[in-house]
Write a structure and sequence with these properties.
Layout (H helix, E strand, L loop, with lengths): L1 H22 L4 H20 L3 H24 L5 H27 L7 H24 L13 H13 L13 H34 L14 H4 L17 H5 L6
C-alpha cells in the first residue's frame, strides 16, 4: 500500500515534468544529450571515489533518460534518428560509469583491487553484449527483450552499490558495490546467453514454418490408378481401360 502510494506520487511528478517540457517545446534530443552529459559527470565522480554523490547524479541522469522518450511521444516528435541517438548514447552512458569504477579500483589507494577492476570490465563488456544482441536480434525477429538483467536493472543495481558505499562503515548493508559488480558480471553474460538462445529458437521456428518439408511422405491415395499398377495396365478385370477420358482419371486422385 505504502509502496503503491510512492509509485503513484512519483508517476504524477514525472507526468507533470513531461507535460511541462512538451509545452515548452524542448527537443527530446536535447534531453537525451543532457542525460548522457550528466552520466559523464557520474563517471568522473566514481573515478574520484565520491560514490554517494555519483549515485544521486545517476538517478538524475536516468530521469532524463525516461523523460526524452515520453516527451517525444506526447509532442508527436518521435523520429527514427531520435531512437538511434537515444540508443547510441545509452551505450556511452553505460560505459563511462564502468570506466569511472575501473579507474577508482585501479588507483593506488586502500581500495585498490585487481579483482574489482576485472569484474567492472567484465560487467561493461557484458552490458554492451546484451544491448547489441537485442538490437541485432530485432533485425531478425520482432522482439528480443528476454533476460533478467536489462539496462534498467543494471542502473538500479549501480545506484544501490553507489548509495550504500560508506568507507569505514561496519554495517552489513554498507559498501555493497563489489557484490553489485559480481551480479552485473555474471548476470550480464547469463542474459546475453539467454538472448542468443531465444533468437536461435525463434529464427529456427520461423524457418521451419516458412520452408516446406522436403521429406513429406506422399499418401498412396494421391496416386492415380495408372501409377499404382506395376505394369502400367489395369490391375484387375474391372479396371478402366488405358484410353479412358482424362476427366475420369483425374476424379480418382486426391491432392497431396
Amino acid at each position: 500500500m505504502f509502496g503503491a502510494s510512492i509509485g503513484r506520487g512519483a508517476g504524477r511528478i514525472i507526468n507533470a515534468m513531461v507535460h511541462g517540457l512538451a509545452r515548452a517545446s524542448i527537443s527530446p534530443n536535447v534531453l537525451t544529450v543532457i542525460g548522457v552529459s550528466i552520466n559523464i559527470l557520474c563517471g568522473l565522480l566514481f573515478g574520484f571515489g565520491h560514490f554517494f554523490s555519483a549515485g544521486v547524479i545517476l538517478i538524475v541522469a536516468n530521469l532524463f533518460d525516461m523523460l526524452d522518450g515520453s516527451v517525444a511521444r506526447l509532442s508527436g516528435r518521435v523520429t527514427k534518428f531520435g531512437g538511434f541517438l537515444d540508443s547510441s548514447l545509452d551505450r556511452l552512458s553505460d560505459m563511462v560509469v564502468f570506466v569511472g569504477l575501473m579507474i577508482f579500483y585501479a588507483r593506488d589507494t586502500e581500495f585498490h583491487s585487481t579483482l574489482n577492476v576485472f569484474l567492472t570490465g567484465a560487467a561493461m563488456m557484458g552490458s554492451v553484449l546484451v544491448s547489441y544482441t537485442s538490437a541485432r536480434a530485432e533485425s531478425l525477429i520482432p522482439k528480443c527483450e528476454v533476460g533478467f538483467l536489462r539496462r534498467p536493472e543494471r542502473v538500479v543495481l549501480l545506484i544501490i552499490g553507489a548509495l550504500s558505499t560508506h568507507p569505514g562503515s561496519s554495517s552489513l548493508f554498507a559498501n555493497r558495490m563489489p557484490a553489485v559488480l559480481w551480479i552485473l558480471a555474471v548476470g550480464s553474460y547469463w542474459t546475453f546467453a539467454h538472448r542468443m538462445y531465444h533468437t536461435w529458437r525463434e529464427v529456427t521456428n520461423a524457418e521451419r514454418v516458412a520452408r516446406p518439408d522436403a521429406n513429406a511422405v506422399v499418401s498412396p491415395l494421391s496416386k492415380t490408378p495408372e501409377a499404382s499398377s506395376p505394369s502400367g495396365s489395369a490391375s484387375n478385370a474391372g479396371a478402366e481401360p488405358r484410353h479412358m477420358p482424362a476427366k475420369a482419371v483425374g476424379s480418382a486422385s486426391t491432392s497431396s
